[in-house]
Amino acid sequence: MTEPNHSFAGQWITTPEMAALPVYNVFHRQLDKSSPKNQHDKIQNKHILFRRKFTCESTQNAILRISADDYYKLYINGQFVQQGPTTAYTFRYFYNKIDVSKYLHEGENTIAIHTYYQGLINRVWVSGDNRHGLILDLTVNGKTILKSDESFLFAEHTAFQPCGIAGYLTQFLEKYDANAPEVKFHEPDFDDSTWKHAVLNPNNDYNLIEQPSKQLVFEDISPIKIKQNGKSFFIDFGAIYVGYLTFKAKGRQGDTITIQCGQELLDDGSVRFKLRANCNYEEFMVLSGKEDTLNQFDYKAFRYAQIILPNNAKLDLKSIRLIARYYPFNLVAKCNENDAKSIAIWNLCTDSLKYGVQEVIMDCMEREKGYYMGDACYSLLTYCILNNDFSLMRKFFDDFLDSDFINPGLMTCTQCSFMQEIAEYPLILITLLAEFLYLTDDTEFVRKRFNKFTAILDFYKQEYAEEDGLLNNLDKWCVVEWPAPARDGYDADIAEGKVCTVKHNAINAYYIGAIKCINKVAKRLELKPYADTKKLTKAFIDAFYDHDRKLFRDSVRSTHISLPANVYAAFYGLLPDEQTTRNVVEMIREKRLMCMLFVPFPMLCFLVRIGETKLVDELLHDPDAWLNILAEGGTRTFEGWGKDRKWNTSLFHLTVTYGAAFLTDWDIKGATNFEVE
Fold first, then answer.
1. Dihedral sign, Cα of residue 320, residue 326, residue 330, residue 336
2. Same domain for 314 and 358?
3. Left (φ > 0), alpha (ψ -120 to 50) or beta: where does 505 sit?
4. Where among 295, 326, 357 does a domain terminate?
5. Is there a single domain that holds both residue 131 and residue 236?
6. Rounded to whole angstroms, how far apart are CA atoms 279 and 166?
7. 32-46, 159-173, 188-202: which has the minimum mean pLDDT?
8. Quick one: which of 92, 184, 283, 482 has the most CB atoms within 10 Å?
């Protein structure tokens, strides 16, 4: 449970350079091109350190409340403590509450914080807005003994030099210079006599609340294999993890070690550090002449590392570690099957969720690190079912509802500075809400947010509904399925970055389904239905149903019949008769899992609901799906079913982890029964 909002005695502090910058508004509708360019876009990749000595008379019940923008890593008396906070908008910004009793001692103590302002417009943080700062309070037995103010000293950490950008402007790659004077800034005896005093942050409009989710846990992963070839060392950690490489090395001052990390190997056995997912994981470490330890600030998703030493340098093999980071995971669900293939799929999905979920649940951990609404809905549901813990889902709802200040129809990625809108994602969110209520019976939580969810539907109706009630001319991208070749030829021009001017099937199936879900929620809350879906269902059938073939067409202008158009209609209970149901089942039996991300989940739900358990089992064990990931050497779920099925495949992508949900006890027939509202 989070505490009532803490009233900070400390103030937001920053550097004079950052304090002088005007705040830049990064928020706008995706297709709004009128937003001015950030005139301060050169203020990027700032590693800013803060230090302060303080005295403790007691170390009992020592609670630190701390936050930073964009991020912090905390050290007390030379020991790493924690990092955070999870990304957020300023009007509901998070602080972390940490018991630091075990890190303190009576007498003089040292607190040191490594803060970071990235400055890129991306899906990772709300950055590029010229906001940077740190705030903290330390209380012992309820008495404040330390607070952030101008007595804190600061310096820039000059060890972290950029050497490229990975992903979609996702992160700065790092050239770590062990010669930098700030390398041991966190040690109590570090000489900070040349550091300057921090200044107060004039852009102090943060509304701070305790972070409603847990903080990360860390696990040291030792190599399962180290192979030396001259001055090059090949390291295999056994599986892909998300985290940081560290090791100790010694060589001549100024000599440079090359570090190449990857998720797979090339044909010659070397590390493929130019990832499929548009990341070039080549970084460097400059030696000081003494024994140096590699320190990496930003994380990567990798299994293999190749460390190439300069002449005369030595690598301490026993020191090589991958420090994995992930959200706490407590698996309580069990696999219902005991055959080898089912257990292999179960382990693939559960291990991917354990080591993949971070401070937020994202799609992939390398290319975008994006807090994506639609990608996360099904994998988050699976995570909660496996852990029997829905706290992360509660935060998920609030985080995405927060984006309504940009657009009442919500944004695709939340708590970030990248502006994207995908039309069906907020409608999937409402489907998830109905499932959440069914599984948790948390009527109090849902009731408080009910009007925000209906406001989404109000927006869609007001902006896009035509006379028959169906949606058209959306200025939000409708993805249908991803990538485009996996749409089974879906015949509507839904290219991103433009208004779709043809009335098409998928978005309307999602829309009617979302209204059915909100009606279910309203009934549970003893409220009136949001809307009558009978007229909308009739309009949907009139617009898209092919009475001769007894299947649904893709759009009002097309005769093409695709798998997505019929699966979504089937999932949301829009099929008009038993023959159509049988036809959809036969279509699924023929086309199977050719769709790779968003279609399989509702497809499997539909089949379970109508009792096609044998076909469900066939699809789960289809050699071209989860088993193909394993056959291709996957240790984590891929983006889709194979390495070569996209031009930028992430080999650690969480969406299809929902396979585990269909291998454990989950009352699918409850909230996903759309036949009767």
1. negative
2. no
3. alpha
4. 326
5. no
6. 5
7. 32-46
8. 283
Residue whose C-alpha is closest to residue 127's, from 117, 114, 139 = 117
Assign residue 229 the CATH number of its domain: 2.60.120.260
Exposed / middle / buried, residue 668 (Cβ in 10 Å: 0-12, 13-18, 19+):
middle
365, 652 Cβ separation under 8 angstroms? yes
Angstrom distance (rounded) from CA 328 to CA 245? 21
CATH code for the domain in which residue 460 is found? 1.50.10.10
pLDDT above 60 (res 677): no
Q: What would the pLDDT profile of 34-53 be if each residue is shown by its tens digit?
A: 765 555 567 999 999 999 99
pLDDT at 4: 81
Annotate 400-460 with DSSP letters as a single string: HHGGGGT-TT--SB-SSS----BTTHHHHHHHHHHHHHHHH--HHHHHHHHHHHHHHHHHH
Contact 170, 123 (CB under 8 A): yes
Which of 292, 326, 360 is the last residue in one of the domains? 326
Residue 39 pLDDT: 52
Q: Is residue 332 part of a domain?
A: no
Strand partners, 172: 165
Please name the residues in contact with 282: beta carbons below 8 A apart, sequence gap of 6 or more: 163, 164, 173, 258, 259, 260, 273, 274
DSSP letters, 508-538, are: HHHHHHHHHHHHHHHHHTT---S--HHHHHH
Side-chain-facing half-sphere of 333: CA atoms under 13 Å: 25
pLDDT at 203: 86
> Mean pLDDT over all residues of the chain?
96
CA distance 398 to 67: 19
Assess contact for 396 and 361: CB atoms under 8 A: yes
The CA distances from residue 468 to 241, 460, 526, 590, in Å, are 50, 14, 28, 34
pLDDT for position 284: 98
Based on the fold, state whether residues 284 and 264 are members of the same structural domain.
yes
Output the furthest CA–CA distance in the chain (Å, rounded): 85
Tokens at 133, concatenated: 């700062």
| 235 pLDDT higher than 80 | yes
Q: How many residues does the chain have?
A: 677
φ/ψ of 404, rounded to 5, equals: -70, -15
The predicted model scores a pTM of 0.97
Considering the domain architecture, whether residues 278 and 262 belong to the same structural domain is answered as: yes
Cα separation of 564 and 609, whole Å? Answer: 18
* 125/261 same-domain check: no
Here the tokens at position 70 are 């964009």
* Other beta carbons within 10 Å of 286: 19
Answer whether residue 450 is part of any domain: yes
Residues 194 and 261 in one domain: no
Helix or strand (DSSP H, E) at 468: none
For residues 487 and 627, membership in a common domain is answered with yes
Distance CA 336, CA 385 (A): 14
Where in the sequence is the domain holding 255, given as residue range(s)? 218-326
Question: Is 175 inside any structural domain?
Answer: no
Please give the structure tokens belonging to residue 260: 């190449």
Report DSSP letters for 545-603, one per residue.
EETTTTEE-SBTT-----HHHHHHHHHTT---SHHHHHHHHHHHHHHTT-S-SSSHHHH
Residues 186 and 237 in one domain: no
CA 82 from centroid of its chain's CA atoms: 19
How many domains is the chain built from? Answer: 3
Contact present, 361 and 637 (Cβ < 8 Å): no
Using the 8-state DSSP alphabet, how is residue 657 labeled?
G
DSSP string, 172-216: EEEEEETTSTTTTTTSTT---TT-EE-EE-S-----EEE-SSPPP
Residue in the structure block whose two tokens are 């709300």: 126
